[in-house]
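Consider the tokenized backbone below.
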């Protein structure tokens, strides 16, 4: 296995909060499916050798009809019930020494962000793009504010997150064996392997499309700023 990079795009979620009849990542966003944006962005990166799309088993025909051929090798694997299961399926299928794991629901990922993650990933073994929290943060119980939370050590984590493949594979396999669930891959690596991910500057345009409002915002960003 050479020192190459595999990009894993997680697209097995159903996106129920968007309340659409079609799975979220296949909805047209400015005439292209949401999923296509991140696939094309990774395909344009010279450092990325292969792309793995992790999809829901029921979506194979939809994927084949919707996603055009890319400039890089693309393989399709099936995801599981949880995001973590899908990430594990993608990492197991990867052939690179390094992996970039990205949520397909973030269609506005940029080449610049990917490059920042790659540099830190190679230097530290694990890297995550983050944004500072600018709003006041409160602890709430039963509908009432109970305390202020110091936001200086809190950030928003984004994807793609980058890792040495064997590091992430070991963390996800152990998490599955022990029935532990994590909201992202950096959490699994930290808890299961004790490895802290290096943070890099995130991108405020790299939003996650979860709700109808997010979808409208993504449309506006593409319309006014293009694929940045």
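A designed sequence for it:
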């Amino acid at each position: 296995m050479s020192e190459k990079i595999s990009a894993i795009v997680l697209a097995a979620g159903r996106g129920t909060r968007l309340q659409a009849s079609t799975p979220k990542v296949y909805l047209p966003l400015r005439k292209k499916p949401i999923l296509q944006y991140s696939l094309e962005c990774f395909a344009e990166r010279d450092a990325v050798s292969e792309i793995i799309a992790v999809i829901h088993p029921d979506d194979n025909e939809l994927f084949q009809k919707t996603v055009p051929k890319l400039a890089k090798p693309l393989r399709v694997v099936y995801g599981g019930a949880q995001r973590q299961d899908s990430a594990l399926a993608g990492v197991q299928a990867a052939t690179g020494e390094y992996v970039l794991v990205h949520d397909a629901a973030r269609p506005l990922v940029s080449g610049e962000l990917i490059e920042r993650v790659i540099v830190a990933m190679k230097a530290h073994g694990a890297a995550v793009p983050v944004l500072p929290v600018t709003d006041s943060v409160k602890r709430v119980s039963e509908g009432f504010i109970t305390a202020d939370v110091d936001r200086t050590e809190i950030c928003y984590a984004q994807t793609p997150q980058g890792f040495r493949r064997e590091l992430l594979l070991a963390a996800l396999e152990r998490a599955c064996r022990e029935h532990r669930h994590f909201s992202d891959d950096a959490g699994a690596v930290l808890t299961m392997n004790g490895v802290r991910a290096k943070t890099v500057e995130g991108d405020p345009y790299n939003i996650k499309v979860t709700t109808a409002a997010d979808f409208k915002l993504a449309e506006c960003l593409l319309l006014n700023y293009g694929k940045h």
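The mean pLDDT is 94.
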